Prior knowledge:
This protein is α+β, with helices and mostly antiparallel strands. It has helices spanning about 15-30, 60-70, 70-75, 95-105, and strands at about 1-10, 35-45, 50-55, 80-90.
Amino acid sequence: MFTRHVIMELKPNTAAEFTDIVEGKIIPLLRKQKGFRDELTFVAPDRSEAIAISFWDTKESADAYNESGYPEVLKTLSNLVKGAPRVGTAELATSTLHKLAAAKTA
């Protein structure tokens, strides 16, 4: 599995709107992308930074999204984010997320 991580500096007082847009617009867009598996989004306690991690079947699927879907995401978030987000990629080495999901439903 392959991941993309995006680190964004949020403009003041935009964390709630950021979360709403991720849930209402960005996740539905991601679900339409070939090879998309999941998305985790974090907001710093001081609400100044957000980190989004998306999971993909393959590097090729993540790269295709980067070319076709990500520009739309950037446009959608442009009023909430300061500067250019930092994007990185990695192969998933380990995960315990399935244990978190199981604990949440128990």
